Amino acid sequence: MLIEPTTYTLRYTSSGNACCPRNWILQGSNEPPTAYMRDPTHDPNWIKWTNLCIHINDVNLNADFGTCSWIVKPPKDNNKFRYFRIIQTGKNKYQIPTDGKDEWSDVFVAGSFEIYGKIHRKAKQKVSENSLVNKQYAYHHDGDTNGIVYALEQSAPGTLKVTTSGVDAGKAENFIERSHINCWTQNKPFSWFCVDLGANRKAFPSHYTLRYASSGTACCPRNWALQASNTGSSGSYDPLHDPNWTTLKVHTNDKSLNSDFAAKTFPLETSGQAFRYYRVLQTGKNAFDPKGGPDTWGDVLVCGGFELYGYLADSKNVAPPPNFSPQHQSTTQQPSYGASQAPPSYGGPPPQYGQQAPPSYDAPPAYTPPAYSEDLTNRFQQVNLNNSASPKSTGPSAPPPDTNTGRRL
Fold first, then answer.
1. Could you tell me if 136 and 257 lie in one domain?
2. Measured distance CA(43)–CA(196) in Å, rounded
3. Where is the domain boundary, 296, 314, 332?
4. Residues 297, 219: contact at Cβ < 8 Å?
5. Which of 179, 228, 237, 283 is the most buried (most CB within 10 A)?
6. CATH number, domain with residue 298
7. DSSP for residue 81
8. Is 396 helix (H, G, I), strand (E, B) or coil?
């Protein structure tokens, strides 16, 4: 569901007007926000946000629990959105005391958000299984809608089964998600994600797409392989040379996925074989640098956005069309883990790290509130909104009383 906005409402959520909002912006997008945003008013190109209504020294929310509505005029060529957010872009009404201690001017006191406009719902069309198989899915560009995974999930969400060696962030299904969602495995050698196309389908692959599934670059993939199988079983201590799996492509020290949610599509050589199962197997360390400390993240496989291209066949009639010709590229590169050796031992099972993000060595510096001007030339360098409990009415950290009523915020 998408909304074409025409009006929105906002309320000042306090009984004292010492910290009324003055400078903020309403934005819309069709992608969720990233975990780390250094400049939210100019969000990175990975996720597009459109400015819908900019407020500069706006005094409309200037009374106890004051409410106001504004007209929204989005661009004609980009006027339907799934996500909306409000970001404070400058100081609120709070008057900094003579001692210079600024405790409240960056607090954003607002709520009761409401959006009005036209709702657009996509009509779901029933797609028969026969219309999906015995069909070519040709790669056009990264993020296109021409892939096999996209077609199957759009026609029947949940039709694909995703498994993993063990997930630590997100869930296994995030491996085929197109949204920018953090997704990675547990910290174990030979970590993997696998997609099952279904008992009645096999694909002659020509390309595949993979995305780095995190907003920090400390654990970008470096060494991995794409494998395919018709049984999905595994029992070898050396997964890269498991007889049940065919290795389609090996990546050694590949730096293609080297930025936040970076994605790339790779051509494949298949020798005319069709497969039901496809898995991405990490064959060596990722980009994590322990800097002399314990290697707590080096075997984590951080990836998502998996897509497959080629010819999808009915398993009862597994034959490619005469004109099917996958892109050929050598897969003779050697993996980082040896072919005849067992995976390295790290002295027992690694500890669990919950859902925290991998460390990032290019994290933004500590936030220092800048001086704001009416033309918005000075922007936040990092969002640092204080969402703690409401300010107390007593104590040295409480805001000054309202000059008219004597009440405190």
1. yes
2. 36
3. 314
4. yes
5. 283
6. 2.60.120.260
7. B
8. coil
**Which residues touch 58 (CB under 8 Å, ≥6 apart)?**
21, 22, 23, 24
Burial 283-311, CB ≥16 within 10 A → b, else e: bbbbbbeeeeeeeebbbbbbbbbbbbbbb
Q: For 341-354, how does the pLDDT look when each residue is reduced to its tens digit (9 = 90+)?
A: 333 333 333 333 33
Burial (Cβ within 10 Å: 0-12, 13-18, ≥19) of residue 209 = buried
Q: What is the pLDDT of residues 277-291, one digit of tens each?
A: 999 999 999 999 988
Beta bridge partners of 11: 67, 111
Give the HSE-up count for residue 280: Cα atoms under 13 Å, Cβ half-sphere: 27
19 touches 93 (CB < 8 A): yes
Q: What gap in Å lies between CA 340 and CA 203, rounded to an integer?
A: 30
- The pLDDT tens digits of the residues spanning 51-105 come to 999 999 999 998 899 999 999 988 888 889 999 999 999 999 988 888 878 888 8
Bridge-partner residues for 284, per DSSP? none
- Checking if the pLDDT of 118 tops 80, the result is yes
